Predict the structure of SCP domain-containing protein.
Amino acid sequence: MTSGYTKRKWMGEMFKWTVLVLFWISRVSVGERIRRTTPEEASTLTELHNEIRRGEYASNMEKLKWNSDLANLAQRWVDACDWNYGTEAGFETDAGFSSLGQTLYQTTSAPIDVGGAVNYWKGERTFFRGGKCILAGKCDNFIAMIWATSTDFGCAYASCDTIATADISNAILMTCYYGPGGDIATTEPFKEGSNCTQCSSRRGWCYEGLCNSECKERSNECDCQAHCYCGILQADCSCKCFNGWNGNDCSGKLLRVYDLAEVF
């Protein structure tokens, strides 16, 4: 009798501990699912993105910086575990941009290698020629990464039992948002030319070949690369064009009234 009581007690304890272990495992699983990208991963992603961007011969390529609001937006998107491009309604308020670019990546290898995701997107350059994809949809991720006027980005990933529309199970879904985005159907992602000579700020502040819109004066991260062909370089690294000339580098000639008469 004593032996039977001891056995039942032991089985009861085992059941209790089994329930506790299963509960702990479920909590860990949920925690992994909603885990944000780490500061180290954010730093790695920023470095890799900017390395790829400076590899293009671009005159207006901006330096990307990490944006936590975009990372949070990306987290909510991947938590839905759906293999689709898009944004949630009202993203403009949360992201601070009226348009966004996006990259998508999935893998069954855990833990995820965020650098591997970037290299996968970089591989799409094979299909990039003359400022566009030579095969529709084959390099959209790459174009989003190198969209010259994008200044901010944020990424996130989530573990998924099933990824909708992708027919894949037990995988990790990752996405990055880039702001502002652009219209890849009608506009080329960057302008070819000397680094930092056509920055969107109209100033030639440059950091390792990328436009740095945060610069106010010369420093280790703010080198003035402006070229003023028909104008005078200003202290703020912009060009003051002579009469009849315009553009960031004063290389564009303004048409006068009698010039227009000759054209038409």
User: Anything to note?
Assistant: Residues 207-260 form one domain. The longest helix spans residues 2-33. DSSP finds seven helices and 13 strands in the chain. The longest strand covers residues 152-163.
